[in-house]
Amino acid sequence: METKLFQNPNSEQELNEAAAILRDGGLLGIPTETVYGLGANALNETAVKNIFIAKGRPQDNPLIVHIPDASWLPRCAASVPDAAYRLAERFWPGPLTIILPRHPSIPLQTTGGLETVGIRCPNHPVTRELIRRSGVPIAAPSGNTSGKPSPTTAQHMLADMDGKIDGIFDGGASAVGVESTIIDLTVTPPRLLRPGGLPLESLREVLGEVAVDRAVTEKLAEGERPRAPGMKYRHYAPKAPVTVVTGSPKASAAYIAANAPEGAGVLCFKEYLALFSDRITQSLGSENDQGEQARRVFDALRRFDQTPVTEIFAQCPDPTGLGLAVSNRLKKAAGFHVVEVAE
Ligand code: AMP
Ligand code: MG
Fold it and tell me: Taking ligand 2, which is a single-atom ion, which protein residues have CB atoms under 5 Å away?
């Protein structure tokens, strides 16, 4: 199959052609502010099955359903509590996925067999327009091959999906860079299932008490089932094994300088690139800029795949604000191989 690259958001013809791919059961790479998604008609079981095949994704790992605005919530959820509308009002379009009871029109193939469904309104004009034109909710997981770092550019996505899907709409680099925050509103108190582009602190401003699922910060025991099925898989991993080092940037840098063997690459804050000038490095951005860290993390992990590093040591941001999502992605890339340095 030839994968067509769409590049002109001002072309009626391109928008209509891309929307028709979605409506008619094809697979389309869609730009969002979090990461690129692999989209298909969420109501079409065959199309959704093809997403799993293209990604090599386990069948029990549910997809997020994308809608162009909150008025579509009742089309996807069997019931919509007031809290969902309050969150949508404040944070949509944006990097927040809300888990609600599944509407019967959303097939179990889309929800990985669950009676709940994750719904999000992405903040990217091209994708919202494509969903509107297609007329159907769009199921889309991240557009990477299962297990690899998520794509934040059309080029990343082409590298994984060329020849496997009908097209990709290039909407520029993703502005946030990590996936959506997932909040489960089917339990009391609401529960954070995955940290992401919307900080936990912001959710608490609207909802009050929010529980944090254990899978966010810890490796689960063999056979243990997290509430967000995706959290149990090894994820975001470059080819070389990763060790994450927590602690203050100064302390983690000192640990890596003293302990990384020859041949190891370093993923470090910009301020420490000079310290590791004799190694292969990728910058995670400034230690003071969490937004930059989120935008860079997946691209930096992918770039190591083009180098001969034997392993990777990564400095890890504090788990506050967007740092909770970035540290979670790094720890998952490392299979939770974490060294905690005091300080
Ligand atoms: P991805 O877009 O590739 O990050 O995958 C979406 C992730 O959202 C899945 O891996 C799940 O962990 C989570 N998710 C989607 N729908 C649900 C749901 N109904 N309940 C719990 N988690 C969900
Ligand atoms: Mg993913």
Answer: 142
Report the distance separating Cα 79 and Cα 91, nearest Å. Answer: 20
CATH number of 242-340: 3.40.50.11030
Looking up tokens 């199309």 gives 47
Pocket test for ligand 1, best of 66, 182, 213, 231 (most atoms within 8 A of CB): 182
Instruction: Tell me the whole-structure pTM to 2 decimals.
Output: 0.95
Residues 34-89: pLDDT tens digits? 999 999 999 999 999 999 999 999 999 999 999 999 999 999 999 999 999 999 99
- Cα atoms in the 13 Å half-sphere on the side-chain side of 264: 19
Could you state, in order of their start, the residue ranges of all structural domains in the chain? Answer: 4-216, 242-340
CA pair distance 31, 6, nearest whole angstrom: 11
Which ligand 1 atom lies nearest to the CA of residue 37?
2
pLDDT of residue 108: 97
Mutate to test the pocket of ligand 1, among 52, 55, 61 (most ligand atoms within 8 A of CB): 61
- pLDDT tens digits, residue range 185-234? 999 999 999 999 999 999 999 999 999 999 888 888 777 888 888 777 66
Q: Which of 1, 21, 5, 37 is nearest to 169 (CA)?
A: 5
Contact 58, 234 (CB under 8 A): no
Alpha-carbon gap, residue 33 to 177, rounded angstroms: 7
Helix (H) and strand (E) counts for the chain?
A: 10, 16
65 CA to centre of ligand 1 in angstroms:
10
For 157, the 3-state DSSP assignment is helix
* CA atoms 95, 122, 35, 56: torsion sign: positive
Angle between helices 125-134 and 12-23 (to 10 degrees): 60
Which conformational region is residue 172 in: left (phi greater than 0), alpha (psi within -120 to 50 degrees), or beta?
A: left
Q: What is the CATH number of domain 4-216?
A: 3.90.870.10
The Cα 169–Cα 55 span in angstroms is: 18
- Indicate whether residue 142 lines ligand 1 (CB < 6 A): yes
